[in-house]
Design goal:
mainly beta, Rossmann fold, Immunoglobulin-like, nine-stranded mixed sheet, four-stranded antiparallel sheet, 7 helices, rod-shaped
Amino acid sequence: MKRILLFVSSISVTIFSFSQTCSSLRYQDTIFHTVTLTTSQFGVATPYGVLAQPQNLFLDFYEPTGDTLTTRPLIVFQFGGGFTIGWRSEPDIPGFCNYFAKCGYAVASIDYRIGLNPLDTNSTIRAYYRGVQDERSAIRYLCSRAAQLKIDTSILILAGTSAGCFCAFANAFTSNADRPASSFGSLLEPTDLGCYDCSGNNYLGYHIPHIKAIVNQWGAVMDTSFIQPGENIAVISFHGDQDVLVPYIHGYPFSLPVFPPVYGSVPIHERLTNLGILNVLHPLVGFGHEPELTAPQLNDTVYNYTRPFLYQLLKPTTPAIIGDTLLCLGTVAHYSVSNTAGSRYCWNLSGNGTIVANSGNSIAVQWNDTGQVEVSVKELNYILAEGDVRTFTTYVALQPLAAFNYLPNSLTVTFTNNSTAGIHYHWIFGDGDTSSAFNPTKVYSASGTYTVNLLAENNYCSATASASFLLDSCPVADITYQLTNYNAFFYSPTTNTTSYFWNFGDGDSAAVNSANVFHQYTQDGTYTVTLKVRSQLGCEYTDTLTFTVGNLSTSISDLRHDIVLMTAEDGFRISSFTNDNLLVTITDVTGRSLVETNCSTNCELQTADFPSGLYIIRVSAKEQTVIKKFVR
């Protein structure tokens, strides 16, 4: 084995490494400046001729100098020459191999056995068959050394000119079942040439990997029916429409009937197209066979069309992005694509945002802008082929702020909405009631602790605020008293009261924790007694009573028996031993008046329909009052 370093540029060597970047022009341009050439023997086979000795078969292996990629697509090039002349480095083969090696491919140009009897059709077919065998032998050799040569055996591309493409089509679309009869032996050449993989070497267990594509330069096939549905081998063809050596459409090679008739690039293109197999034909209008020898500019035509054609086979299809289409400013958005082993994913943001987490195929983004923003991703696969950019749109809405104040007044609460960036509001008052007003006023039916929630929305985002508070009704007091001589006993039924402050009207007062209080007066007089009661929340109520101590015509203690209040099954019976009109009231524990009526000497009061609860009934006549609590 010998190694030849080819310098294709006089400038210093630059080695491109893409391991730390998300962008790659590999396979899309000549990113390498120099190419390393290695020549090696890949097999030994018996050539044409009765007395011929076994022929050593060689190949030239082209690779980018200093390439760090450990697996690369392989192009195998086979020269033309009608199976009678040619060699692996004839013009313009090195130019093709160097060009695609500089693009990042591994490229091999191979020998194969040539020679035939131009007067014997069977001999021409056997020469073609030997070319097929030798190409397969070279492929087995190269792929058996995939790790050493940094070859991706799943991306095998066959290329060549003229006769070399005859062999490429045979290896891509035929099998041993399609062996021509003359390959088993003919009258003038009785030797059986063996199976497709029975020559040259025994690498890879006598089989080759699947062919991915063919670069056909003025080649042909023996029969287009060899191309079957489902054989998805992409083909790009170049062929002069004036070619008389290998027919552009159909005919005998060299226009000589000694050769079997063949089908050129036009029927090949039609067959592939009808079967839905990716292919393209580039007619070289006005040119004949091997046109690049007289028109070198056609090499650029081949390169410039072949490069993007092959790249579409190499590049990954960047997966579609899955992610948040709508979110609120200040929240974290999540985006992901399906993961392919060996690939890496390059994310980009259009908008003011920060990628706060990146696990390769998924990212988390903190957006700082409102409105429409975009995230894009590009896949770079294991052979450093770059996929197309995928874009995903997200709408970022302003996050509302929910806030409120409240002002309680007994059981009535006034709410002040201090929210920002909201459009719709939803209040939940904690008692089953709701409201959509901006500043609602709520009247609660009972005291207690309530938790109020406010939801502020702007058609996109929402926020909540919450507050808890204790409500209580204002207390109610109603002073009554009993007087014996100068000793007075005061009593006031009250509701929701936590403190009592008595002022007895004689300069004396008392702060007690009871609605019952005793006070002794020292002299006759008319006094005004005041009771100030306060609830737990500080709501106050004041009741007053004016009475006389001393010169009384009748004592209250004597009068208190003039009113009789009796409990009955369905309410109360009320009797009076005087002719005074009686005032009857019933209140609940919150001080709310339920009944207020006048009663004559005898009356009945129905309470059977009252809701369950604690009530206070008060019967008054002049200065006498009878009070009783009852439960329904």
